Structure formats: structure tokens, C-alpha cells
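Aim 2, interim progress. The first record below pairs a target sequence with its C-alpha cells.
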Amino acid sequence: MCNFTGLDELSEDDCLRALGVDPSNCAALLKLGMLAFERGDLDQAESYYRGLSQQLPDRSGPLLMLGEVLQQQGRLTEAEAAYLKATRVDPGNPATWTVLGFFHLSDSDGLESAESCFRQAIGLEPDRFSHWRNLGQALLPRQPQAAVEALTRASQLEGTDAESHFFLGLAWRQLGAIEMALRHLEKAVQLDPERAGWWDQLGGLFLDELNDPGQACQAFELALGCADAEQTYALANLFWSCLAQGDLSRARRLRSDLDNLEPVGYALCDAALTVVSEGPEAARPQLSRLEGHPEVSGDYAVDWRRLQALMAQPHRSDPGF
């Protein structure tokens, strides 16, 4: 029987001395594994967690911790084996199914497996909102209507869960229900205003679906103010919303601040500036060089659609041009 009482008070030296006396000391193995993981020494963490799982073969916790270490090392086959073993050791523990579900969710080919795992967790705890939210997240890329149903159940169980509202916003947008998408995305940022990616999604909805570049600008500016903002992405979004407003001078300043775009990203920005400043005809040579580029149907597909939308608008010259 392992005793974990007083684990927080144990120092690393205490644990190393304890292992010197008894290599099977579970408390020492656990604490040393945790300390190694915290400082990024994954090899040491793996060693301690393997030792702990050998001492506690009927416990899922050590296997889940070992799987996390292996996953961070990129050893995905071994990580999956550890997570699967945890579900076999403790099949009535929804945490084991949740961890395995998120492992599969990290792989676009693993969405069906993730769905299955989250349904297992729901079967064990049907009134836990997070299981329904996780299921909705797994369903979202393939079955947005089913995702709405799962996420609606999550929000019924916990109405203040910001992530449920965020994913509901994405699902409704995918279904083309823009007003419903707007309602849930606005609720998400109201509940948790420090998520840059959420403001980016809200701004994209205003810009690309509701044709409201003013509101889009406000959302993208709020994204820039978040601690987790990806600056280049946020600035690029703000650039496009300023152009849609006809604010060419600010768009030019933002273009000069953009770093780390692919060459096609800069080419799209420059073509957009030409459209707004000189008119669509002047930009056609730039567009002809971009048409058919693989990135305009890949990572830069949204920017390409925004450029096409600018081309379709009446020409608005900048008064100071």
C-alpha cells in the first residue's frame, strides 16, 4: 500500500534519499516524476513514471502521466498504448476516456475515435457538462448539426461555460446560421474576454459574413490586446478590416508592421492595397500571379476570399492618396 501523505512537503533531496533506501517508494517516484516534468526533463520523468506504473499496476494515474510524457516526446504510438492501458485498468474512470479522447482529437484522422471516447465518458457521467462539450468539439469538423446538439446540452448543464458557447458559435457558423453564431461568440467573449482566438473568430464573422468592418476592427483590436495574441495573425486581420472600411492609410501602416508572412501573404496584402488605392483593374496583374497558387486555397484561403470581396466592391480612393 503506497502512502502519499505529505507529498507536497517532500523535497527532491528527500525523495532521492528515500529511493536510495527503497527503490519502490511510490511517493518518491511520483514527486520526482512531477519535478522532472515541471523542469522539462522528460527522460527523467518517463523513468520515474514507468517505475511508478510498475509499482501500481492497477492504477490509471501513473499510466496517464506516462502517456503525457511520451506524447510530448513525440512518441505517439507508445503514448496511445499507455492511454489505452489506462482505460483497461480503470474502465469506469471517465478521466481515462477523456484523456484518450483528447489524444485522438489532436489528430485530424482520429476524430471518430475521439467521439467514441467522449461518448464513453458521457455514459459514465451523463450530467457532466465538459463531456458533452468535448463530444461537440470532436463532432464539429464532420457533423456540425450533431455538434450543436451536444454543445447545447453542455450549455444547458453549465450556462456559464465559455468554451461551450465558443464551439457553438463555430458550429452554427458552419451551418450558415450567422445570427446564432454571433449570439454564441459574443457570449463566449463576454464570459472569457482574454482569448485572442475567440475575438479573431468574432471579428471574422463581422468582416466576412455580416459585412461590418467597423465591428470587425474592434474585435481584432481586442484580440491584439490579449496576452495570447499571435501578433502577425491579429495584425493581418486588422489590416483586412481597415481596407474593407476604406482606411487605406492605416492599412498601409499595418502592412509595414507585418512580420513572418509567407511571400503569398504579402502578395495578397499588396494586391489588396492596389485594389483600394487604384481600383480593381490596376490589381489584375497581381491577381493573375496569385490565381492557382496552392496557398490561396490553403493557409491563405480566407485572405484570398477577402481580396475577391474587395475586387467586387465599388472603387473607393483614399482622399490622401
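The second target in this work package is listed in the same format:
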Amino acid sequence: MMPEILASGWWAYLAEPFSWQSALSRELDPAIVDGWLAGEVRERIQKMTSDSGSPLGEEWLLRRAVWAAAWKGREHTPEAAASWHEYLGSMIPGAFEVAAPPEIGEAWRIADRGSAQERPDGGLQTARARWNEARTNVAATLQPLAGVDADEARLRQLVALVTTDDSGVGSLRRLYLRDDPFEERRRAMLRGLQPADQWGFIAGIDYHDPRRRAGATAPSEWHELFAGVDWQPMAGAGWGLEYRRIEQRVWNDTRLRVDTRIALDDDWIVRGHAAPALDGEHIARLKTGGGVSRRLGDSWFATLNYEWTKFSDLDAHRFAPGLAWRWHPRSTIEAGIDLVHSVPRSGDREWTPIGSVTADWKFSEDFVARLHVELGDRSRANPVRELVGTDQDFGLGFDLRVPVASRWFLVPSWSYERHERFELHTFGLGVVYGR
């Protein structure tokens, strides 16, 4: 009974403004009514999201971004207003086609069932309080339409409602998960709303602690210092630049990495990178490659990456097909198989398969946790030469992205690798701004 009550009540709460539109449009300019409808539905979605944890608020922002990009430069046309009306209605099943006073009244009657006899429930009580507030405050709801001059206002109200920045869009802009095709697509949709180019900064340290097994030897510990910037213009390709210094007891090497990425449309993302060694012999002389992502549906992305790693006496070619599934509004699961082809200057060539699964969970728009598991010898492409060919067979990693201030985040991380002769623990801490 309770799921039916909640579903009917929230549907009536969101769909009710649509049932008034026809009558209001006979008295007022339809464009003004569309503008009012956009604001009223937005406010109700925000309240529902706050009360119930529904992801509909995020969906509203995405649809608004798509609409703004599609009608950029033509926002003041009746066709744009009609399009936005359809965008709103498509979010609420049946609201655009059948929302009328009788249907709304029936939904409210279902929502009121058993209200006097049911046991107290915090979530349902909160929802009913919200519904009753809307039902008893119709005059205040319609107040924004009083005294509107259609000759002056026209579509201005609509345009302001769907193109003005707010905290929700700001939170989405700050969302950054490297190489996540869903986030790249989200940034592409929001780009039409960005007032300026977007950029971010990251710096941190990774400490690697090999712990040898009984009767075996292990490499010495080492650490990596890194700093980078990320820039996304309003149009065109985004760019990233990272400097990394790798230090062990008796040597230190440095590398510079350049990344680029571009969303060709809503379905295709292309990226590339190059990371030459600036000095040193213990890291790869060059790592370069690229990849593509292709949207297969609203919740699926396929990826294909290639990377060439060149040491002084070994080349490694990595082919990496993968699949990403946005199974929940707060989570994405990615699975892939890396095929590493090792080509030494002397000795036998070898193919090594590596399976991996990565899952993330967003506790909020800014607080993200990620888990990574892999099986196979990932160390063949590791930046430290001593690890190549040490027969890693298992890896596990975990990291958090924790907001600490406006546009500032801490990224603590830990990973574990089991090798034939030792176990490798890596502890990391990064500071991120603006991503």
C-alpha cells in the first residue's frame, strides 16, 4: 500500500501544475504560462528531491542543459517554449498528455488512503505534509502570474528560468572523474551553460612500500610527487598537463604527461596522451596512446584504448576494450580486459591478459568513493622498471574524493598488489581544485 500511496502522491504533486495550463493560457500569454510552469515544476522537483532523495533533480538539470544547447540563440521563440514544455512533461510520466483535474484528483484520493489508521512513518508523514502544503496554497502558487505584462515579458521569464546558473549546476560542473565517459558526456551537455572556460588543478604524493615475502627479495621503496592542470574551453578539445617526479634512494626520474579529449557529439568521445621521460633510466622513455568511447544507450558506454610503453630494452603494447554501465544514478561499474604484448630486445615475446573491474559510488554530487580490482600482471606497464616481469597476480585499490571547501577536494587512496616475491602497498594523498 505504501509504495502506491507515495507514487500517486508524488505524481500528483509534480503533475498538478500541468493540469492548470490550459485554463491559464486562455487568460494569459501562453509563453508567460510556460515560463511560470518551468519555475513551478523546478521548485517542486527540488522539494521532492530534498524530501525523498529522488535523482529527479539531477535529471532536471541535465534536460535543462540539453534544451539550452539545442535552442541556443533561439530561446525567445514560441518553438523553444513548446520544446521546453515537452522536456518538462517527459520527466513526469503522463503529465504532458493526460494531466487534467480528474486524473489529479484520483491520484490525490489514492495518496490519502488510510491516512487516519496507518502507523506513523517519517518518510510518508514528510511527504504528506509537502503535498498538503501545495494543495492548500494554490493562490500563492499562482501569485507569480499576477500583473504580468505579456508585451514586455514574453519569453524572458522562461529563458531566465532555464539558463540562469544555480548551485545545482555549479555542483555538476565541479564533478570530475578522470576518464569516466558519463561525466565527459555530462560536461559536454553543460558546456552550453558555462560562462567561461573551466580549469582545475591537482597535486599530491604516492608512496610505494614493497614488503618482501619470506626468503625473497623486493625492490626498495619509492615515492612519486605529481602536479597537474586541466583545462576545458567552452568549445573544442580539453587539455591536461601533469608533471611527475619518481624518487628512490639512489635515483630520481621525471616525466611530463599531456592529455587531450574531445566529445564529438553525445555518442562519441576521443582522447589521446603522450608522456615522455624528461630524464632517468628507471621509468619508461615514452608512454603514448589514445582511445575512444561510444555510447550504446542511456546507461552503457563501450571503450577501446591503446598505449605503447617504451623502455630501453622492452616495448609493451596495451590493448584495452571495456564496458561501462551506469546502473544507478549514483554509481557506474566498468569492466575491461587489457591485453599487454611485451616485446623485449632479446627473448620471447609474450601476451598477458589483465582483467579489471572498477565501481564508484556518489554519496553526494561532490563526495565519491571508488573501488578497483584487477587480476593479472599490471606491472608490465608500471612506470618503475624493476617491477616489470615480477608476476603480479592480484591488485586492489580504493580512493575517496572528499569536498573540504568550495571547489577544493582531498583524494586519499590506497592500493595493494600481490607479486611473486613481494607485496606492494601504495598510499596516496592528492589535493584537487575546481574539477
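The first helix runs from residue 2 to 27. This observation will shape the mutagenesis plan for the next reporting period.
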